[in-house]
Amino acid sequence: MTGDIAPDLSEARDALIRLVEAATVRLHRPTAGPPTAADFLGSGFFVAPGWVLTCAHVAAEALDGEIQVVFRTAAEDDGAERAVRARVAALLPDGPRPSPDGRAPRARGGGWPPPDLALVELLEKVDHPCVYLSPHGSAFSGEGEVRHSGWAVMGGEPRLVTGSCRVLGNVDGGFGPRTQVRLGGDLIVPGMSGGPVVDFRRGEVVGVVKAKADGVQGGGMAIRIEQLRRLPFGPAMPDQPAQDLYQTVLHSHDLFHAGELTAPVHAAWADVQQMLVDGGRLPPRALNCRQYVRLLGHLAWLPLPDPVVQRDLLAGLLGTVRDLPLPPPRAWRDTVGLLRARETSGPGLFLLLRYCLRVLLVPREARASVERAERDLEGWIQSMADQHLPEAHRSEITQGRSAYLARRQARTTAPRAPQPPPEPSWPTVLLELSDAAWQPGVYDWRVRVVEPDGLVRPVREGNGLLLQPHVPQGTPLPLELADALEEAFQQSDGPDRRAVLELALGPGRLGVDIESRRTGPSGPPLGVVRPVVIRWADPVPQDEESSHRCADRWRETHTAAVRARVLDCEDGLGVPVPDEEGQRQLPPTIVPLLCGAGTAGGTGWQPRAMAPDGWGAWSRSPGAGPYPADAGTAAPPRGTGRHSGAADDAAYGPRDLYGAHDRVPYDPDPWGAGWGSAWDGTPPPGNAADDGRRDDDVARLLRGGFRVILWRRTGPVRGACDDFHQYAADTVVGSGTAARLPELVRRLRARVHEGRTDTFWSTDLALLYDDPGRPLPGHDHRMLRSP
């Protein structure tokens, strides 16, 4: 740093350097042992949870598309590193996947044609920082200073290298697919390819290091971050349409940074950006950096836009699309970045808010999370208009909001779609566990096949079976029980279907996750190949009124469109499940969700402490959801304070710049079991406190008449609370009726088993599905009449 830089600006730049370095990774070929310099391929950087951006010529060296991502643990100061399994998900310009042999051929001469970009997907769930990507790349438009970061082998060891460069110009034009940016300045050495290029004025990553300069001179070539928009549609999932990988990753990026605004343990990237903007005396904007990041977070909760719709929205605002930059805007954030360049005055902000209103009016499927995201965005628009726009412009914004509200009302009152015919009935396999006297974790067991007409066929039973709860995925079942289940499945399965496995469990046994185990020495867990549901084995005291209410709830959830509601978590903090009187107020179509934030294994159960903005911000878990997930009612704007968020957004100051890149310490082997250095979707073991609280919650809901309940056994992994609220609610609503939930949960388990990081929110998911009209064999007394 030079001596004429203001202390605040110098502090902000130091913090920015730490943020960038913490997110810069190196890539290695997979090996049996620790990564070495001999396996080193190049550099990359985290752009979204579970995603690394690098150069195609680096990622293409991965054999069979497999690669290792190595990064410094964010919570350590001793240089500790972690290696994570990953796969090459996309190469540019070679399409959405590597060639069939797993290694795309190099271009002639050993180079790789521009844009030379690749996306790498982590196959394990790990906690890591992410850079902030510029939506417009303005630093490359002039001759400003940028900074680069990357890894290089020096003295036989990989070392992190940073430097400064000047933008000298372009090669092959300014915005074409082959355009590269010329950099001059500090030396870029081999191995740094794939590292980030950072705009030091605004604190944004604007490009990717591609190559060093020829000869001994400094500098080299870089690729604009906007070139990633040229990524084609990705591969289709087995039962899903083709994926827009670019938008998926960028929306995840925006959600990550919006979530950082509510994490009290470190300064958000937006805080550092604001310090840079203030210290550098850049032209003021109507929105500060936190407000801008929050807007992108609101938009990211909406479904991915069609690029043609984006173009039409812009044409309606600007009157033409002739002057759009290349490649054209594709995600919501791309268009917002384009409009933000005009946002230094009131009219520019007015244009941005008009665009947001038009986004609200885009027709889209009515889902719980979509409706909530629309409400959040609508509230944000009104708040910004009230704060920054003159009266004439505010009235037009109000008219646009009225049009949106009328459309939303029409959508919510529309007639229900006809329900599909009921599924045919098939035999089910019933596994009953009962506690062996004075032996915790040891059970007597019985396996039976139950026919649709109620006929019961015994298969096998036994005593003294040891079953530990919360086991790693793929743990084998004890041989005796595995053989009994296989025999029952042979009697129940058909050529194109798998029988449902029902687990009859009671208090103290809900942690027994049979679905995580397999019946043979190899193969997937039971919950991957067939639906596995829980039935309550103990009596449920009910009077006549509550018995009728139970039957009504079951009927409504199977004949009408179901909704979801999280009942044990609010603002990322554990709250008591409503008592029976509170449950009576819930609609009969509600499926309760239990997040587990209040369990000892979760991250959100902390004493409330009011922060200056009115939220319990300083007691909130890092990454925890900032508002209660209620798929049926309105919620406050996400992460924006209790009402409009004005106070929170105005106070954007950093909380701890020196700790800006720190996170809560992550223990690579938190259970002392030698299960590996990174979380791979395998849940941690629970404890008696966790299971006891869950037993109480489930029993209370059963007394309230609920027979379909969805929960996580071990509580949220840090940062996954809000994901569970959103995606679990979408799963419930998307099922149409509760009858489809057992199969939908099975599909989620299958994707977790495949390593699909976008489904890790559903790890350790449990479903109670207990038809009150079909009591367990010999358990007709379960519904005890209260005196």
TrEMBL record:
Disordered as annotated region, ranges? 92-111, 404-425, 619-649
What Gene3D superfamilies does the record tag this protein with?
Answer: Trypsin-like serine proteases
InterPro entries given in the database record: Peptidase_S1_PA (IPR009003), Peptidase_S1_PA_chymotrypsin (IPR043504), VMAP_C (IPR045450)
Q: Where is the vWA-MoxR associated protein C-terminal domain?
A: 443-598, 681-772
Q: Which domain of life is it from?
A: Bacteria
Which is an annotated Pfam family here?
VMAP-C
Q: What is this protein called?
A: vWA-MoxR associated protein C-terminal domain-containing protein
